[in-house]
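Prompt: I keep going back and forth on a fold encoding question. Comparing notes only helps if you start from a blank page. Show me how you would write down a chain together with its backbone fold. Please set it down just below, with no commentary around it:
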Amino acid sequence: MTPVKFILRYTAVPFMAIVAVVFWASFHASAEIDARQYAALSSAYTSFPLDLRRDIADALKSGRLSKWDYSSLVRQSLDDGLTLEWPPENKADVAAERARLVALVKADRL
């Protein structure tokens, strides 16, 4: 076996597989959350402590919440002893639920 074949077979191919998985995972985590998750944050927003409200406002500066942001916010709410309940009805309009949460955040800043 030549050194080039060895490097390609045992180093380059596994490295490219690792890079592909990392790229997919970061792309997946940066996707926007769905309407039910926005609705859960909106319904529990008034019961959140001030620091968690600030973190939500900071995460919404980009105009939307990613799955990565949502998971860290949920972890922080659980650390504060608060749980999020998803609404019983199926929410489908992401833009309306996002606007509802943004309105709560803006009203809180005033």
The first helix runs from residue 3 to 29. The CA atoms of residues 14 and 41 lie 40 Å apart. Residues 35-109 form one domain.
